[in-house]
């Protein structure tokens, strides 16, 4: 599953935000900048939580190069399977 959270149009590029994954492997966030730059990272097993984070990233116009740092700052060290 891959769902678009939204786009941000900027002067020199477009940022596109997606949530992807499934319950067994977890959900992640993907950010693309004008089809050239892309970042992908598995974030959490709770789809609702990942959608919430992706929307916050979109509202903040986060670029792909910052995704891993922001996810690390969110402290998802307890990332565990729901099983």
Structure, described:
The structure is a single chain. The protein has 83 residues and is an alpha+beta fold. The protein has one domain (2-73). It has two helices and four strands, in the order ββββαα. It has a four-stranded antiparallel sheet with strand order 1-2-3-4, covered by helices on one side.
List the main descriptive attributes of the protein structure presented here.
83 residues; alpha+beta; 4-stranded antiparallel beta sheet; 2 helices; 4 strands; 40% strand; globular
In brief, what are we looking at here?
With 83 residues, the protein is α+β, with helices and mostly antiparallel strands. The protein contains two helices and four strands. The chain has a four-stranded antiparallel sheet, with helices on one face.
Q: Work out the radius of gyration.
A: 12 Å
Task: List the uncertain runs.
Answer: none
Mean pLDDT: 81
Structural class: alpha+beta
| Count, helices | 2
Strand percentage: 35-45%
Number of domains: 1
Question: What distance lies between the first and last C-alpha atoms, to the nearest angstrom?
Answer: 20 Å
Biggest beta-sheet profile: 4 strands, antiparallel
Could you state the order of secondary-structure elements as H and E? EEEEHH
Helix content: 10-25%
What is the 3D shape?
globular
User: What is the number of E strands?
Assistant: 4
As laid out across the biggest beta sheet, the strand order is 1-2-3-4
